[in-house]
Specification:
Layout lengths: L2 H14 L2 H8 L3 H15 L4 E3 L4 E3 L1 H25 L7 E7 L1 H8 L3 H7 L3 E7 L13 E5 L9 E7 L2 E5 L1 H6 L14 E4 L8 E5 L2 E5 L6 E2 L2 H9 L4 E5 H9 L4 E3 L4 E4 L5 E6 L7 H16 L1
Parallel strand pairs: 3-4, 3-5, 8-11, 8-12
Antiparallel strand pairs: 1-2, 5-15, 6-15, 7-12, 7-13, 9-10, 9-14
Length: 300
């Protein structure tokens, strides 16, 4: 018995809910799939599937075996990809984690160009505003905005930069005087990004002046577009990345305030970084994605 092939047949049978569907997906005959799965059960001395004339289901032993089989097949795929990744041809799956709105607005519109450029490349894109654990989440490369913790366990490559703008809607400014100095924000409702307890203050820098403010407001969110929509609706003053609001400012939905200051939450910076594990150095998949990201950011 080809054990690896038998595992693939069993896994696909469970995923597809039947032998014939699994056989079509694998490009094999139904009898071959049925025979291999039965051979697995005979070798193990346990029933993996419950069979009726209409459908199949997984036994308790089969579910445990399925989970282990999936892990084995994923490990084999990863090993294959690791070796192929050092070759001249870019191929295999690249698992990428990016912030939600950055992924939707900056990366997603251009992904097809990357896939057309490298026909052997497969992208698995995860959107999250939380910092990913590259190892436990099996992420190949993570894109993060702002300062990152640099350590020997993580490779951090700067791929671009952005600014954060202080903004409010014209309607809000009709009823509230526009701030002329950062301290004036203490009199305003500030729409704040939720950094899970950190970066509670906004830092303003201009020439030799540095101002840190613990701004206040009744709305905070861990999604930047929520704050953008609230600001457009006249809910207050917010601090958002320029790439998110350029069109809103150009079309008059938002007004940029205190433009003479560089503004960041807490000690964060305006860096855009690509993070990956040290053992992925030399990965052609990661290299072409970073090149693609730099290209997109340069185009603005």
């Amino acid at each position: 018995m080809d054990k690896l092939l038998a595992l693939k047949m069993f896994v696909e049978t469970v995923r597809c809910g039947g032998y014939s569907s699994a056989a079509r997906k694998l490009g094999l005959s139904t009898s071959s799939v049925t025979r291999q799965v039965a051979g697995l059960e005979q070798e193990l001395g346990a029933s993996l599937l419950n069979r009726t004339t209409r459908h199949i289901s997984v036994t308790a032993a089969g579910q445990s075996y399925f989970d282990k089989a999936v892990a084995i097949l994923d490990a084999v795929d990863e090993a294959d990809a690791f070796v192929a990744d050092r070759g001249s041809e870019v191929q295999g799956r690249l698992r990428v984690s990016v912030p939600v709105e950055f992924g939707r607005r900056i990366i997603a519109p251009h992904l097809n160009r990357l896939l057309e450029r490298y026909p052997g490349l497969e992208i698995s894109l995860s959107l999250s505003d939380q910092v990913s654990d590259l190892l436990s989440e099996q992420i190949d490369v993570s894109v993060r905005l702002g300062s990152t913790v640099v350590s020997e366990d993580i490779v951090s490559k700067r791929v671009g930069a952005f600014q954060r703008w202080v903004l409010a809607s014209p309607d809000y400014l009709k009823h509230h005087p526009a701030p002329r100095h950062p301290h004036d924000l203490l009199e305003h409702q500030c729409l704040r990004f939720d950094y899970s307890g950190s970066h509670l203050h906004w830092t303003f820098q201009a020439d030799d002046e540095t101002v840190q403010l613990n701004v206040q407001g009744r709305l905070h969110s861990n999604n930047a577009d929520i704050l953008r929509e609230a600001a457009i609706a006249g809910g207050g003053v917010t601090l958002l990345a320029d790439w998110l609001v350029r069109d809103d400012v150009a079309q008059g939905r938002l007004v940029r305030l205190l433009a003479q200051y560089e503004v960041n939450p807490g000690s964060a910076s305006g860096c855009i970084n690509a993070l990956y594990l040290p053992n992925h150095r030399g990965s052609s998949r990661i290299n072409v994605f970073i090149e693609f990201l730099e290209e997109v950011l340069r185009a603005g």
